[in-house]
């Protein structure tokens, strides 16, 4: 085990688990733990010149986000597990219905 690395999986497993396109993902996928970002080396990633903090793509700890609505939703028999990127989809759908 390597400190700061949460998951290491092959392409097929990553694409299925994270709903990713097979042709755009490398042979292996590494996911870091909370508050860690993967890079090549410290000297190639000097962040001292940035005015704002750098945002990574996020890890498994950032997938669960609050989902707040202003009315009761019906219970759906096959309701999906919502993840962070689903917020945009549902916001766009709500705007289209308004």
UniProtKB/TrEMBL annotation:
GO terms for molecular function: hydrolase activity. InterPro entries: Alkaline_phosphatase_core_sf. Keywords: Hydrolase. Gene3D superfamilies: Alkaline Phosphatase, subunit A. This is Phosphonoacetate hydrolase. It comes from Aminobacter carboxidus.
């Amino acid at each position: 085990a390597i400190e700061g690395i949460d998951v290491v999986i092959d392409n097929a497993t990553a694409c299925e688990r994270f709903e990713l396109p097979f042709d755009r993902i490398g042979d292996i996928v590494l996911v870091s733990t909370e508050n860690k970002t993967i890079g090549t080396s410290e000297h190639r990633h000097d962040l001292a010149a940035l005015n704002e903090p750098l945002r990574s793509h996020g890890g498994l700890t950032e997938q669960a986000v609050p989902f707040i609505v202003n009315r009761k939703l019906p219970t759906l028999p096959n309701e999906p597990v919502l993840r962070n990127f689903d917020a945009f989809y549902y916001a766009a759908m709500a705007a289209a219905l308004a």
